[in-house]
Each structure stands twice: as structure tokens, then as C-alpha cells.
Amino acid sequence: MTSWTETTSPLPLLFRRRSSGEIRNLASVSSSILPAFGTVVDEGHLQLKKFVIAPYDRRYRWWQAFLVLLVIYSAWASPFELAFKKVATGSLMPVDLVVDAFFAVDIVLTFFVAYLDKSTYLLVLDHKKIALRYVISIYFAMDVVSTLPIQLIYRMFTGNSHYAQVFGFLNLLRLWRLRRVSELFKRLEKDTRFSYFWIRYIKLICVTLFAVHSAGCFYFWMATHHKTLSNTWIGTQVNDFEHKSIWLCYTYSIYWATVTLTTVGYGDLHAVNSGEKIFSIFYMLFNIGLFAYLVGNMTNLVVHSAVRTLFMRDAINEIFRYARKNRLPEGLKEQMLAHMQLKFKTAELQQEEVLEDLPKAIRSSISQHLFRRTVEKTYLFKGVSEHLTVQLASEMKAEYFPPKFDIILQNEIPTDFYILVFGALDVLQYKNGTEQFLSKLGSADLVGEIGVFFNTPQPFTVRTKKLSQVIRISHHHFKEMVQPQNEDGMIMIKNFIQHLKDLKQEMLQEIPFLTESLDELNIEHIQANENTQYNELVNFHGDTNMEETNETSTPGAITLRVIIHGHHPDEGDTNGKLIHLPESMEDLLRLAEKKLGKRGSTVVMGDGSQVEELDALRDNDHLFIF
């Protein structure tokens, strides 16, 4: 087994950012750096061995970036020196030697760079293993061959300074270094600090320029080595071209390669001899593949950047067709369009599909960071335990609404209530065919809770006044979280009742059952029943009148709620009374006599079936007692 002195996990190196030898931004790390399942990341073994370089050391990264600049020079100089041998033994030769010296230094450094074991995903730090792995790989042989100044060595041993053609082709081995550029682009494409579009765009430009440069240089080399110089593509246009300026000939070469690549083909420069025609055939076949590669990549980039816009336009067109087909009013159609446009504008802020892929703990932490302060400021949750606050914030769902959008409609079935994060809301009521303004709500205000708490249709319409963000929680989730929390439930009931008493008189007048019940639901009464579940304190029935039935409820127990009627199911429909189901049939008959004003002996369901056992009943069943 490899010891921890020889291998170590790369993750600690990524997390220690302050050291000059480590990464400062995790976005620049390749996604392949992952520890194997079961790998223990030991924080006690973070130090590298002496004379070992971490592959993701910041200084080593800068060195690699500097070598990429030299690779760009090599990619230009190698084909250029093949075509124009004068510069290979003249002005460019000292530059080539300096560049080769830097790559020779890199070969030496590679013997000290730790590597990632692909089987264990551990960083190997043993010097012998690092050196052996590099020596037996193809990289070492190719690095050495592409770095050795073969022409200079030949001159030193033979004393012959003549430039043989073989040296030009050996210089092409320097193109092996292009793999560094490919690795750089792969790393930049994964780096979220840079635009993926522009990285890919620059890569495509570089590929095109290198293809044009290489083809032009090789085509000129063919002309210079033809037996009859005048019978070549450039010899027919430029007399005695071998003695002309290097840059003039290079311009002609790049012009021909560009015109041929773009399939323009003016005809002024064309293949003359058989060799040139064969090369032109293969070059044009290559151009077909290169052109398809470029067009495919550019199309993908453009479509990817516009795909959301296309989806939005399709969705808006569907709304227009639906509204026209069903003859929807203009105001409702405008609300639909505004909501759809806002949905696409805020998609980057919500990113529900991203959050769904994250672990629950991370989603919870994000919700705490975004919504916890707002939840704590809401009147209903003031004073509740931190545990419940955390649960509430974690279950909140954020939504954006455009101006003049109805969040809650009057008389709709309550399913959620909302907390306003930012923006402004108007509370409205439709009465006698007219819309009446009741109040204005601001940040951290709660809406929809009256309908949810009393399980009655929403008494008001709530409409956005401007662009607003709200967080909502469903009635079901809220009930599940609060039921086990007796103390928190009592605190919320107290806050709720106090809020109801502080409502404006014009709002209370629109909720008659609420006004009649506020005298019964007072703080002193709640304090006398502190062990009672919060949802047993607020009772309602079909005609929205409140009935107090705590005397028949078992404190602390979760009981069923049923609606009782004082007649046979076939004798018409009257408003019933919502009560907590007692423990026995006798208690049920006694409570029904008290609430309905008459004694009954038979209990049946709405379909006429007689009730014999109370355990068979379900929540919100209708019981007919006569």
C-alpha cells in the first residue's frame, strides 16, 4: 500500500488558498480532480515533499502559461522556416535557441512535478515514481526530440554550416508542443471566470489561422523545390521569385491559402504542375472538414446563446393563440404575457433546475442565506424557536411577479400564503361589482394567512403594485412543521390574534365571522390552554361562524374535525357546525344537542350509511344527527 508520505489527496491543496503555491479560485480546477470513493482527506498531511512541485501550484501554472506563448511562436516559425530557409539560418536561429532553452528547462522541471494517479486519484509525490513515469512515456521522447537544436549539433560535429532540407522537416517536430495550447483551451473552457463563447471563438480563429499559415508555407516550399521555377503557381506571376523579398512571397502564399480555404477561387493564383494540383486536391478536401467544423461550432455557440429567447417567443405566441381562441379579456391577457416575460427574465435568478440537483443541506443553506431575515421580520414568526425558523426558511419557494398581477384572488381556495421580500402589494376587495382598495403591504408583510388559518376562501384579492418578489409556503408543509411544535404554535396563535385585532376597521368589516370571534380568542384564554395544539384553538364551520369546542378536546391530542347537521341528509341543505370529534358516541350526541339545540339518537353519513364506530370517520366528514 502506498504510504501518505508518497501520495496525498489533492483536495487539501485546493482548499488552502492563501499560500502562494496553491489555487485561489476553484473555478479554474478541472472537473477531473476528484478523490476516489472512500479516500480519506487527511488535513494533517498537507506539506509537499522537498523538491516536489504541485501540478496546480499557482507559480507552475504561470510557467505553463508562459510556455504557451512560446508554443505560439513555434507554431508560426516551424512551417515558416521550412518554406524560407534563409531565416532558419539567419535572424530566427538565435530566437529558436532561446525558445528551445526554455523548453529544456521545462523538461527538467517535469521530473519534479507530482502527478495524479488515475486509479486512486491521489497525488503521487515519490521522486522515483515521478521520474520513471515521465521517462517511459511518449512525452519524454517527443519533448527531447522537439527541443534539441539538431542543426546546431550537426554543425558542431561536422563543421558544415549548409542547411539541409531534412532540418526543416525536423523543425516541424516542434509542433508537438501544440498539445499545450489544446490543454490550455480545455482548461479555460471549464473556467467559469471566462466567457465560454469567446474562448471557443478564439480557439476557432487560432485553428483557422494555423491551417492557412501551414498550407501557405508548404505550398511555397513546393514551388521552391520544383525543377522548373517558372512552371509553378507563383513563378507564373512573379518572375525570379526566389530572389524576391521573403515577406512578398509569404503574402502571396497566405493569399492563395485564404482564397482556397474560403472557396472563392479567383483564378489568379492556381496550381500549374502535377504536384501542386495533387496538394490542392488534398487541401480542398481538408477545407471541407475544417469548414464543417467551424460552421458547426459557430452555429452551436449562436444557437446556445439564443435558445432561451426562442423558447420565450414560442411561449408568448402560444399565449396569444390561447387568448385569441378563448376570447380572454385584454387585462387577463396582459397579465399572462407579463408573467411569462418576467419568468424568462428572472430564470437566471431562480435557477430551480440548478437547485434541484444540489444536496438538501446546500439548498437549505442557500434558503437560510436568502430568506431567513425576512421570515424573522414577519409578525407571525416573531418569537418562535430558531429550529422552526430554519425549517420555514428551508421550505420557502421564491417567485417574482410583474406589476398589476393578482397573486391571490378573492374567494379562491387557500393553498399557500406569501411573504413579501421586496416590492409592494395592494389588498383589494370586489363588492357590488366595484373594486375597493383596503390597504398597502410592504417588505416582510404576510398575505393569505387568514384563508389558510381558518380554511376558508380568501377574503381579499392581493395584487402587485410594482415588480415584487415573494416567498411562499404551502398550507400542507406549514401544518406538518408546526403540529409537533406546541410552544411555537402558541406563539404564532398569539401573534396572529394580535394582528387580527390591529387590522383596520374597514378590513374587519369585510370578515364578519372574524369580528364575532375575536372576543372569544383572547390572549388570556390561550394562556389558560397552553398545552392545546394550535390548530385546535381556531375552529370554524360551513357558515364561517366560530364555535369553541375545547371542552370536548383532549389537550395535546390531535383530533379529527367533523361537520354536524341536525337533520336527515335528504331534508335539504343547511349550514352545519364544525366540531372536534369526541371520544365516544354518547359524547358526540351530547355535543350535538348543545350545538344544534335538539337531541338526536341516530348518526348517518351523507350517503345514508349509519355510523357505528367513530374510528371509521375521517377529517371533515359530514355527520347527520336526528
TrEMBL record:
Alphabetical list of SMART domains matching this protein: cNMP (SM00100)
InterPro entries linked: cNMP-bd_dom (IPR000595), cNMP-bd_dom_sf (IPR018490), Ion_trans_dom (IPR005821), K_chnl_volt-dep_EAG/ELK/ERG (IPR003938), KAT/AKT (IPR045319), KHA_dom (IPR021789), RmlC-like_jellyroll (IPR014710)
Gene3D superfamilies: 1.10.287.70, Jelly Rolls
Subcellular locations according to the entry: Membrane
MF GO annotations: voltage-gated potassium channel activity
Membrane topology: Multi-pass membrane protein
Record-linked Pfam families: cNMP_binding, Ion_trans, KHA
GO CC entries: monoatomic ion channel complex
Ranges that cross the membrane: 60-77, 97-116, 136-154, 197-221, 245-266, 278-296
UniProt KW keywords: Ion channel, Ion transport, Membrane, Potassium, Potassium channel, Potassium transport, Transmembrane, Transmembrane helix, Transport, Voltage-gated channel
UniProt similarity note: Belongs to the potassium channel family. Plant (TC 1.A.1.4) subfamily.
Job of this protein: Potassium channel.
Protein name per Swiss-Prot or TrEMBL: Potassium channel
Organism: Prunus persica
